[in-house]
Amino acid sequence: MPPELELKAVIPDPDALRKRLLAAGAEERFRGHMSDRRYDREGALRKQDQVLRVRYYRAADGRVEWVLGWKGRKRRARGGYKMREEIELPIVGRESPEAFLDALGYEVVHAIDREIEVYALAGATLRFERYPRMDPLIEVEGAPDAIERAIRATGLARSSFTADSLAAFARRYKARTGKRAILAEES
């Protein structure tokens, strides 16, 4: 399985960025809500730097999709990209795989909710992410040359893109604003 390569950056002006990407030929692939629920069993996956998650997509038109995913250990690839092995399995039907994971003894250990827009551009996937309370982000995935072409199309400085974790972006948000980032909807 090929590893996933990605970089993220804060989006200072989402509307302007969207216009630049569309002008560069980007195609919108998805718009809607995405929720992640990360699972673990007594910290076993965290200790191995692995992630087991259920991802829920609710499109603006009402379509729903569930994806069960696993991510391997984080590494840095040449060029500064975050690199992880990843396996994703779409779940057929409208039922969540959460009961299956619960039956195996896994518990939700982390929740992330965001409104997203996904675009394809020249072999890269770009995802705008808007959280309940934090800076909006853009994530760019693909092969290194596709990532670099997509970054140029954003008009954002290459130095603003990083392989940092979402937690690092949340810490910077708090340091800058004095407010704790909220990454999941309050239940």
Largest sheet, in brief, is: 10 strands, antiparallel
Order of helices and strands: EHEHEEEEEHEEEHH
How many helices? The count is 5
Level of helix content?
10-25%
The residue-averaged pLDDT reads: 94
Principal-axis shape equals globular
The total count of strands amounts to 10
User: Rg from C-alpha positions?
Assistant: 17 Å
**C-alpha end-to-end distance:** 36 Å
What does this structure look like?
The chain is α+β, with helices and mostly antiparallel strands. It contains 5 helices and 10 strands, in the order E-H-E-H-E-E-E-E-E-H-E-E-E-H-H. It has helices at residues 14-23, 44-47, 98-103, 144-154, 166-177; strands spanning 4-10, 27-40, 51-59, 64-71, 75-77, 81-84, 86-91, 107-121, 124-130, 137-141. Strand 9 (124-130) and strand 10 form a beta hairpin. The protein is globular and about 45 Å long. The model has no long low-confidence stretch (mean pLDDT 94).
Describe the secondary-structure layout.
Blueprint: E1 4-10, H1 14-23, E2 27-40, H2 44-47, E3 51-59, E4 64-71, E5 75-77, E6 81-84, E7 86-91, H3 98-103, E8 107-121, E9 124-130, E10 137-141, H4 144-154, H5 166-177
